């Protein structure tokens, strides 16, 4: 194998490795974006759960008042 052929082979392989690294970086960025979206969704769910718990407490209080009136 000639030196130039070997150099071309090495350059081609390095190019492929760089392409794979770029794809890994893109995948990592997508994962991080997905994680951020999941965390935001979790925060929204927790807020809604808190609101629902507050409503349940209010309803339980109203039921107790109605029961004492009867």
User: Which runs of at least 5 residues are low in confidence (pLDDT < 50)?
Assistant: none
Mean pLDDT: 97
Shape: rod-shaped
Structural class of the secondary structure composition? mainly alpha
| Percentage of residues assigned to helices | over 70%
Q: Report the sheet-strand fraction.
A: under 5%
| Rg over C-alpha atoms, rounded to the nearest angstrom | 30 Å
Biggest beta sheet attributes = none
Tell me the number of helical segments per DSSP (H or I, 4 or more residues long): 1
Can you write the helix and strand succession as a string? H
N-end to C-end Cα span: 100 Å
DSSP strand tally: 0
Coiled coil: 42-69
Keywords: Coiled coil
Question: If you had to describe this structure to a student in words, what would you say it looks like?
Answer:
Keywords: Coiled coil. Residues 42-69 form a coiled coil. The chain is mainly alpha-helical. It is 96% helix and 0% strand. It has 1 helix and no strands. The mean pLDDT is 97.
Summarize the structure.
This protein has 70 residues and is an all-alpha fold. It contains one helix and no strands.
Describe the structure using short key phrases.
mainly alpha
Would you spell out the secondary-structure blueprint of this structure?
Elements: H1 3-69
Keywords: Coiled coil
Coiled coil: 42-69
